[in-house]
Design brief:
The complex is a heterodimer. By secondary structure, chain A is α/β, with parallel strands linked by helices. Chain A is built from 12 helices and 22 strands. The longest helix of chain B has 5 residues, at 51-55. The chains are: A alpha/beta, B alpha+beta.
């Protein structure tokens, strides 16, 4: 039997649902019964239960939830699946410091993340502490806000209980891209679905997708997103049409849909009071999707190649298609991304932290042949478990290597030299942007273990799939320059009244626009800037210009 | 964007396009009084009155 724990905060759920809490409990019981029939021993763990002792999770203390889950994870014998039950107002995300600090900062003051729950490392606000995830962790969210509808959470649990994986993977897909990122999306789709794969683009298509168009199991979306917004957007020039809208999805997608969305805020589970309804991620799950992988904050990706969000999303779908459970697929995607991108730049660190998996990670979209070829059911089960243990052992080993041998940009930065700033500023000006006054320099934090670092480097592939064989030059510093001012984000939500506020146009853009700006990232090797990349940010989605390599 | 005097927030209109909203565009440079909801650095505007227009 495999082991799954469903972790939640009973007090928070009871406060939200009152007498309807029992409906949630009954739905969990039905999931436990269904899991037992598919060889998974599932148990409900109340993180605020009296048996938690000093590890009891406390409301308004997110750090205590990390400690509680860590405690339970080891107490329960390192379960195969950890499923967080409830949205962030039940089991909070861990808020990680943004790696883009100082003058390199974007609008996100921090990153709401479930990554720390997937790591053995103790609680911390530093993303770099969590580059070696080893646990399969996902979240089944519930409705947010006042008077939440309990039937949403009950429905998601019942759908998970009833789900049966398909016999085989298909290569049909729904691939959607903002027009400006068509090249990048095409690369992702072709890596997943073959040489003839093409994205649908917005504009011209959408958002009234038909059931037939949305019927494929695999959905890969590379569009704009915005906070507390039930839409994804396309882009062509200054045209930003709605590419997808939440309210039409539930009745048109099919059960078992698996989604990877690169969009900013795509996996934000928010209180719909501030907008016109729940987000697209919730709409997918309510409509029968078994997994939605997306970002809680501003995500990054190039326009005509693949990096950052492109890669972690593609790796996730790839593993799902091979028959992995969605939870394992997400762990594999995280590990693969952390390995391939090492040393992780501030942008890549943010990517690793910001993507989360919504849905029961113990479900798989398609069956595998790993059930074994034994003649008896016991022999088949034995072969399956042996295979499972081998796969999980490899993931545990990889987590250790990443933790010991992975390298990241430091979590602090200083001002870049004037010459570097000037070069990066020229890069910004050449694209018509006014550079910021300072570029920030991030030192690369060396690996703790050079042997582990060497093992990781061996066979590492470049973004395009070419083996580097460890020959990639050692990046020693990153430099980041913002080319336009960002909005001043502040913590705290809630209804506000404002008086006498002035509406201003930002840098010639539309007043309602998410800030537009550019980020220039330089990579330095042994005192020389060997690569400068221009990133255009709009709604936090960044479009990347072709790379340029030169010596300083 | 919305300049409250104390801070600047990205402004949205409930149900409006987050990236380009012609209704908000007409408010550029105006001083308004309104209500809405804030989430992070976004302010979603429900209703508003144009102070400048009222004074005119």
């Amino acid at each position: 039997m495999l082991i799954k724990i469903v972790v939640t905060h009973e007090t928070a759920l009871r406060q939200k649902y009152g007498v309807h809490f029992n409906a949630v409990k009954s739905a969990v019981d039905r999931l436990i019964a269904a899991d037992a029939l598919r060889g998974v021993a599932t148990s409900l763990v109340l993180l605020d239960g009296s048996d938690m002792g000093r590890w009891k999770a406390k409301s308004n203390n997110p750090e205590s939830f990390k400690d509680a889950i860590d405690h339970v994870f080891f107490l329960k014998g390192r379960p195969d699946y950890v499923v967080i039950l409830g949205g962030p107002d039940v089991v909070p995300h861990q808020r990680l410091n943004t790696p883009l600090v100082g003058d390199a900062a974007d609008e996100d003051r921090d990153i709401p993340s479930d990554l720390p729950y997937a790591c053995n490392a103790p609680g911390s606000a530093v993303v770099g502490s969590f580059i070696g995830p080893s646990r399969v962790v996902s979240r089944v969210p519930d409705a947010q806000g006042e008077n939440p509808d309990v039937s949403i959470l009950v429905g998601l649990l019942d759908a998970a209980a009833k789900w049966r994986p398909k016999a085989k993977s298909t290569e049909t897909y729904f691939g959607l891209s903002a027009d400006v990122w068509e090249k990048s999306t095409r690369l992702s789709l072709r890596a997943l679905f073959g040489a003839k794969a093409e994205p649908r683009t917005s504009p011209l298509e959408g958002p009234k997708w038909t059931s037939s168009q949305l019927s494929p199991m695999w959905h890969f979306i590379n569009c704009h997103g915005a906070p507390v917004d039930p839409h994804f957007y396309g882009q062509k020039g200054n045209d930003y049409p709605v590419a997808q809208q939440a309210d039409t999805l539930p009745s048109r997608i099919r059960n078992g849909t698996v989604v990877a969305a690169e969009c900013c805020y795509g996996a934000e589970v928010y209180d719909p009071v501030a907008t016109t309804g729940p987000g697209i991620c919730m709409a997918y799950l309510v409509g029968g999707a078994i997994a939605f992988m997306g970002s809680t904050t501003i995500a990054y990706g190039p326009s005509d190649s693949n990096a950052s969000a492109d890669l972690i999303c593609r790796y996730f779908i790839e593993s799902c298609m091979s028959g992995a459970s969605t939870g394992r697929a997400f762990l594999e995607a995280r590990q693969r991304f952390a390995k391939e991108a090492s040393p992780l730049s501030p942008v890549d660190l943010k990517t690793l932290a910001q993507f989360i998996l919504l849905g029961d990670g113990g479900l798989r979209a398609v069956t595998t042949n790993r059930r074994g070829s034994g003649k008896t059911s016991l022999a088949k089960a034995s072969a399956f478990l042996t295979s499972h243990i081998r796969v999980r052992g490899a993931l545990a080993e990889q987590a250790v290597l990443l933790t010991r041998g992975g390298e990241t940009a430091s979590d602090t930065a200083g001002s870049a030299s004037k010459s570097i700033h000037n070069r990066m500023a020229d890069e910004a000006r050449s694209a018509g942007y006014a550079p910021g006054a300072r570029a920030m320099t991030f030192e690369v934090t060396p690996a703790r273990d050079v042997v582990a670092r060497s093992i990781l480097a061996t066979g590492r592939k470049s973004a395009g799939g070419r083996k580097d064989a460890g020959a990639r030059p050692d990046i020693t510093r990153f430099h980041v320059l913002q080319a336009t001012a960002g909005a001043s984000g502040q913590d705290g939500d809630g209804a506000k009244a404002m008086t006498g506020a002035r509406i201003r146009r930002r840098a010639g853009r539309e007043v309602g626009s998410i800030p537009k700006r550019m980020v220039v990232v330089g990579r330095e090797v042994a005192g020389k800037v060997v690569e400068i990349r221009r990133y255009y940010a709009h709604a936090g989605i960044i479009a990347q210009c072709p790379r340029r390599t030169e010596d300083e | 964007m919305l300049d409250t005097g104390r801070e600047q927030l990205v402004l949205r209109r409930r149900g409006g396009n987050a990236f380009r909203d012609q209704v908000l565009e007409t408010l550029v440079g105006r001083r308004i009084r309104g209500t809405g909801s804030r989430s992070g650095y976004t302010f979603v505007l429900d209703q508003w009155e144009d102070d400048d227009e009222a004074r005119a």
